[in-house]
Amino acid sequence: MELHENRSFFIDLDNTIWNWDELKIGAADLIDTLKSTDRNVYFHTDNMLLSRQGYAQKLNKMGIPVQKEEILTAGYVAARKLVERDIRKAYVAGESGLIEEIQDEGIEITEDAETAVVGLDRSFNYDKLQKIMKIAENNGKIFLCSTETSFRRSRGNLPHQGPLNKAVQEFGDTEVIGKPSESYRKIFESYFSYFPGKSVFIGDRFADVETGNQLGMTTAAVLSGEISEEKLRKAEEHEVPDYVLTSLNKLRRRII
Asked: Helix, strand or coil for residue 23?
């Protein structure tokens, strides 16, 4: 199916729509075009600095109208995963976006827990690592919300969660629940209403492409983040997108 025949577009945020504090060139025009032609536009991210509500407010301030329910974050996926496992208490290493989503599901955040949830945490320290180690030593469960290594701001790259994961994984088994995990896909499928055969999953990482492929959607990789033409030549079959785009303007022209 050609891109212009699709009705729903699921677009990543970091390194795809924005450099955190500024929109990518062509982002606003792309979304205006999609909405003006009666396409459904949704957003997804493994960045948990903000909650879904926080991202909705941020996007609206940037001139992109969106509702909380049109955004899926790894923080919300983590919260729903805890509910599905009937986990009512968890230790959380993360920031306000992750904490807010978990608390909104009625889950108590406490050090006295048998489960740890680890997200992007710019205040991660030895004390937090020790608490996670204790949970692992007691055969507790450790969920990792993302595998991303960096995200971009207008003035340069910042570390994401990936480096923290390496420290946590020293203590035992962990489970990734962000893209492209099965947990993420199952919650995605129940969260959004869409027809896979008429939907496009867009992102800048191989994790995005793999997620979209597993969901049965058309996939488009934007060469603005992890993916490059050189890496694509070495990619595994499940990581190969249907379309490769150098910019969001190119995507917009393919849709009109």
From this structure: strand
